[in-house]
Amino acid sequence: MTSGSIQRWAQSLATLASLAVLAACGGAVGSGGTGAPLSVSAGTVTGFGSIIIDGARFDDRGAGVRVETEPGKSVIAEVKLGQQVEADFEVDGVAKAVRIEAQVLGTVSEVLPDGMKLLGQTVFVNAAPASGPVTQFAGGYARLADVKAGDVVEIHGVSTLQGTTYVIQATRAEKKPFLPAYLRVASVVSGLAAAGASRAFLLGELMVDGTNAILLPEGRALANGQTVVVLAKPNALQSLQSGGLRLLADQIRIKERLNGPLLAYLGGVVTQYDPTATTFLLGGIKVNFATATIVPSGRTLANGQYVQVRGSFASEGSLVASQAKIRDGRDDPEAELKGTLIGFDSVARSFMIRDVNVDASGAQLEGCTAIGLSDGLFVEVKGSLSASGVRAQQVHCETGEPVGAIVERKGVVSDVRIVDTSSGSFMLAPSGTLAGGGPLLSVQWNAQTFFRNLAADSSLNGKTVEVEGVINGSTMLATKIKAED
Question: pLDDT tens digits for 47-59?
């Protein structure tokens, strides 16, 4: 890469960082400036434009997205609708880092009338918006009836009590082509052996043996009621004579929450609601709502409701809520998307935005031209979640692409140049209706760019790709590069 190209690359990075601050959207009062401890938002992904987590918007253009794949290792990943994520932020509305946190990854042992079992976890699908985000099906699944025993599935969801046992209300169920190097199960610890005994406990119906596992954070001890993430090799899963399952864990990670005045957003299902004590449980976390504003006003909290709670953690680990927002699909859109419209089907009136299927057959169009919808338009969609994406209620067409927005381009790659092991560039000759009518576009990638079904090397030359990113002049800084579907 020439010195001029390197200079433009540095300028693009600086521009992207400044745009992330200037264009931060949504949220409440900022939680601190540069160098401040990080606050966290944890919940279900319900839209894109910014990343939208249970209705709270976070500008993620400067954030690295990672997923833990094995003990001590995480890799760059892409966020998908319905996933459970944690976003760290200093300034409210601007994410610095995003972590994808699946509940279960393993083989289905039994299909139930309303869900499935895998790794000793009972998983229920949800089709009722008033009960929380509708379960998204992906990876070849369109509905629960597609799931078969023996399938490898990644489940995202929220923990909720059924009697005295924690079960999972799924927000996303995605079929995987093969078993991963490490199985994963995340839930609330119960039945922990007495002090001095081996580290054995239950997650749902799964017996976990942590005798030889790495326990993180270092120096901590396991306790009933903690939320933990367990990683183990597939051959570490054993069938017991009693009919149950035992998993020999390689790593156990306690999901700690920060104490103190830092801002936190948590999404989940209300259990053990106690109006006298003004507390309830969200997963394994106790929430004190004594001084919280309930949104919408006039509503009353109850067991089984899906809520997003805003507050800060007390020293004993409970969340002191300043606001509890009940999600029922009536007062706010269940899902929102902003981006470039692609793959428009004029008969079905469906299309894609940010890899999400949108059904616009019943949508009201706003600001669109006389010809209506077409590929290449930048649109904002508001609607409800369906099992396969978003059912649009409104589609608003922008007159142009907003400055700093994540947009999409498709074209043929040439002149690939590798800067180092994590960055490089190529020229994109735009093609089709996503060309934008422009000339060659310089596409640059860095360590936070996700490549789907492609290698970040010279093999890109000649391939037709779709690129998501932010355009500055004639340069796009890519957030995602994928092979054309």
Answer: 998 899 999 999 9
